[in-house]
Design a protein that fits this description.
Blueprint (H helix, E strand, L loop, with lengths): L1 E2 L8 E4 L19 E10 L7 E12 L15 H5 L9 H23 L3 E2 L5 E2 L11 E2 L26 E3 L4 H11 L1 E9 L12 E10 L3 H22 L1 H11 L3 H10 L3 E4 H10 L16 H11 L4 E7 L20 E9 L3 E8 L4 H10 L8 H8 L5 E7 H9 L20
Parallel strand pairs: 2-4, 5-9, 11-12
Antiparallel strand pairs: 1-2, 3-4, 6-8, 7-8, 9-10, 10-15, 12-13, 13-14, 14-15
Helix pairs in contact: 2-4, 2-5, 2-11, 4-6
This protein binds 4-amino-1,4-dioxobutan-2-aminium adenosine-5'-monophosphate and magnesium ion.
């Protein structure tokens, strides 16, 4: 009998003797998916690929799994099919390995920051502000959509809602993180994040987990250094502790995984400005699906060209056009104004995965920040507390966000982000 308790990929071989009192009635009828408790003796094994086996003296059957209807038969199922059984898929080798690696990554995240004196700060999930200014927020309300109170002009009257104002699920804990960083120095947040963007890609979820460090007195170069050390630490820990699971991913899921991980650990990340990256892409002579020019956002194909073909290593791009980045990023004084104003943004790109980290130095000048808000159609008075950080003891500071699921994808080589989170939320899908 092959027994698995979820602690590793390897099964325990159990030898069940016909002498067992319940052999005929029960043990002989066990099939895939049943649950048992086995008592017995662990002995050295002559079997291939195992050093020990168990000789059972007692087998208690807890639950049967009707072999006619149990979906997870011994054959391989597609990952798409397994998503329809999100309640059973953690029993498969693939999802088990993913969840063990995901857990190891989470531990590394906390270890990395805790060992360096960062405070773990819990920022709110319900918020009234839109950090990324992209308007991709899920509304939180207790009003009945059919019978919402109205203002004289006919709009929904949110002053009568639960919080007396419109509220949403957070897209980022950064703004609140800045409050704590500028008070206490080094902080990080790690929690669920929500985006109501209608993206049907293999890299986007409507609910994902984000880690956001924020550090007072950091400038952009410090931020890049922190990001690189952070990624190297996570990958190093997984390489050290999840060897068997990684070998499984290498052999069964994606044969570039080990090489990618080794590259992350061994090579210094290339740092180059957005403007230089555009230059490389324009000169590349590649047929990109999305045309590339200064001022446009990079698409996955461009990120992959840079990381997989041109540099064959992780890349940190910085100094992006102000027009494609949020209000809170620090403005550069561009001497060469030919291309347009830029901000102290940075994105870390990995081979295969593309953007894994987005961050920036923050605008710490009250007047510049207020002007940027107005430019982007945000009302400064809605962010009065954020502006107060620049009014009272303003300080240079910087931070970034790492998408946990993209990190799990990078480490496991799993192609679709839906397969690296226990219960994926995507447009049209929230069944489990
Ligand atoms: O680049 P983003 O939008 O940056 C921020 O939210 C900043 N406020 C972070 C900061 O500076 N504190 O998101 C950061 C990272 C991305 O690089 C990506 O890894 C991940 O979050 N991410 C997503 N992951 C899964 N599904 C989505 N829809 C994601 N959107 C962003
Ligand atoms: Mg980003």
């Amino acid at each position: 009998m092959e027994l698995n308790d979820g602690s590793s990929l390897a099964n325990m071989q159990v030898i069940a003797d016909a002498e067992l009192p319940n052999y005929e009635d029960q043990v002989r009828r066990l099939t895939a998916g049943c649950s048992v408790t086995v008592r017995g003796e662990i002995k050295p094994s002559g079997g291939r690929g195992q050093t020990t086996e168990m000789h059972a003296t007692e087998i208690t059957v807890h639950g049967w799994a009707d072999p006619e209807s149990y979906p997870l038969q011994k054959k391989r199922h597609s990952l798409e099919k397994l998503r329809e059984w999100a309640h059973l898929r953690p029993r498969t080798n693939t999802l088990g390995a993913v969840m063990r690696v995901r857990n190891r990554i989470c531990r590394s995240i906390h270890d990395f920051f805790q060992e360096d004196g960062f405070l773990y700060i819990q920022t709110p999930i319900i918020t009234a502000s839109d950090c990324e200014g992209a308007g991709e927020m899920f509304r939180v309300t207790t009003l009945d959509p059919g019978q919402a109170p109205r203002t004289p002009s006919g709009a929904v009257d949110y002053t009568q809602d639960f919080f007396d104002q419109p509220t949403y699920l957070t897209v980022s804990g950064q703004l609140e993180g800045e409050i704590y960083a500028t008070a206490l120095g080094k902080i990080y947040t790690f929690g669920p994040t929500f985006r109501a963007e209608n993206s049907h890609t293999s890299r986007h979820l409507a609910e994902f987990w984000m880690v956001e460090p924020e550090v007072a007195f950091y400038e952009l170069a410090d931020n890049m250094q922190l990001a690189e050390c952070f990624l190297k630490r996570i990958v190093g820990d997984v390489l050290a502790d999840c060897a068997a699971d990684l070998q499984f991913f290498q052999e069964r899921i994606n044969d570039t995984v080990q090489a990618t991980l080794q590259t992350i650990v061994d090579t210094s990340f290339h740092r180059l400005s957005y403007t230089d990256a555009i230059e490389i892409l324009v000169q590349a002579g590649e047929k990109f699906e999305y045309p590339i020019a200064w001022g446009t956002d990079l698409q996955a194909e461009h990120e992959r060209y840079l990381t997989e073909k041109y540099f064959q290593a992780p890349v940190i791009l910085y100094d992006y056009p102000a027009q494609i980045k949020p209000f809170y990023m620090k403005m550069n004084h561009d001497d060469d104004a030919s291309a347009g104003p830029t901000v102290r943004a940075m994105d870390v790109l990995l081979p295969q995965v593309g953007e894994i980290i987005g961050g920036s130095q923050r605008e710490d000048r009250l007047d510049v920040l207020t002007a940027r808000m107005n430019e982007q159609g945000l009302r400064p008075e809605d962010y009065w507390w954020y502006l107060d950080l620049r009014k009272y003891g303003t300080v240079p500071h910087a931070g970034f966000g790492l998408g946990l699921e993209r990190m799990v994808q990078a480490v496991t080589g799993m192609a679709n982000i839906r397969d690296v989170i226990p219960f994926p939320r995507t447009p049209g899908s929230a069944e489990f």
